[in-house]
């Protein structure tokens, strides 16, 4: 089983619909992230959470909201989807930088491909 | 703000030859980490290699090595003995180590590598 699981993997929806993408992890990491990837481009940070009570906006948070329901769960919502939110969405986790030599490497889910018509 | 630049949108290499993918970065943080990730056509993100800003030696992982030139703020990925399975998109990313941005990673736009038989 994958350490970082995203559901759904693929979703087609219509403009104006509310969509939730869910992410769960078994790595025991404190930090979770949502990234968006547009075709042929890099990843842009939408929201991130460094623990259950911590939520932070990333570069492109407008039109999105998140919920950190537990250490292992971090969901992304599109309140009213629009076509330019069509993209590949990645959830990722990383271990906390506690001063020991850990790298902060991101562990990614398999991605959720969202199409907004 | 941190920034990652990958100037090669696409690269071609002959099978069994070496290839260098360029990455330059900009940060005012003395503590940071540099990563390369691979994204095959299937879409998942695969961690390849990590270099810490205080590491004295260039990182190596099998056929991957990172040519770290700190004064020039470059972190080029070298793939030796290219294989057909290396055909993919490659992303350079940087994680800042301190302050409000600690733990967040910023990505470049990627380089698409095609390995020719």
Output the keywords.
heterodimer; A: 117 residues; 4-stranded antiparallel β-sheet; 0% helix; 54% strand; B: 117 residues; mainly beta; 12 strands
Your description of this structure?
The complex is a heterodimer of chains A (117) and B (117). Chain A has strands at 4-7, 10-13, 19-25, 31-37, 43-51, 54-57, 64-70, 73-78, 87-94, 107-108, 112-116. By secondary structure, chain A is mainly beta. In chain A, strands 2, 4, 5, 6, 9, 10 and 11 form a seven-stranded mixed beta sheet that branches. A four-stranded antiparallel beta sheet of chain A has the order 1-3-8-7, with no helix packed on it. In chain A, strand 7 and strand 8 form a beta hairpin. The model of chain A has no long low-confidence stretch (mean pLDDT 92). Chain B has 117 residues and is mostly beta strands. Chain B is 0% helix and 52% strand. Chain B is built from no helices and twelve strands. Chain B has strands spanning 3-5, 10-14, 19-21, 24-26, 32-39, 46-52, 60-61, 64-69, 74-79, 88-96, 105-107, 111-116. In chain B, strands 2, 5, 6, 10, 11 and 12 form a six-stranded mixed beta sheet that branches. A four-stranded antiparallel beta sheet of chain B has the order 3-9-8-7, with no helix packed on it. Chain B is globular. The interface between A and B is medium-sized, with 28 and 24 residues.
